[in-house]
Structure formats: structure tokens, C-alpha cells
Write a structure and sequence with these properties.
The protein has two helices and no strands. It is mostly helical.
């Protein structure tokens, strides 16, 4: 599968957290970002196999 390249501007603190998470999961940071995005897209019904959240189901944790 071809991959789209995209320059990402991100807060260094967020990138460090993603890198630590990737290390824990034995993934590259790029792979972790893709996994995070895919998971969020599925949860919000933006990819096949995902479900749209019902009103009140949104994750409001920060």
C-alpha cells in the first residue's frame, strides 16, 4: 500500500509522549501516530468497521 507523506508540526512534549508510547508498543513513532489516528477514526465512525458515538458518549477526558 502506498503511503502519503505529510510534514507534521507538533508540540515537542506531545511527540515525546508518542515516542515513549511507541517504544512501549515496539513500534516506530510514525507507526504509532498512524495507529492512534486509525483507532480514533474507527471509534468515530470515519473508517469502515467503526461506530459513530451516540450523544453523550464522547470522551471528554483531557
Amino acid at each position: 500500500m502506498a503511503r502519503k507523506q505529510y510534514p507534521l508540526r507538533i508540540d515537542p512534549e506531545i511527540w515525546e509522549a508518542v515516542q515513549r508510547w511507541a517504544d512501549d508498543e515496539m513500534r516506530s513513532a510514525n507507526g504509532q501516530v498512524e495507529w492512534i489516528l486509525r483507532d480514533a477514526l474507527k471509534r468515530y465512525g470515519r473508517l469502515p468497521g467503526g461506530k459513530r458515538p451516540q450523544r453523550g458518549d464522547e470522551d471528554t477526558t483531557e
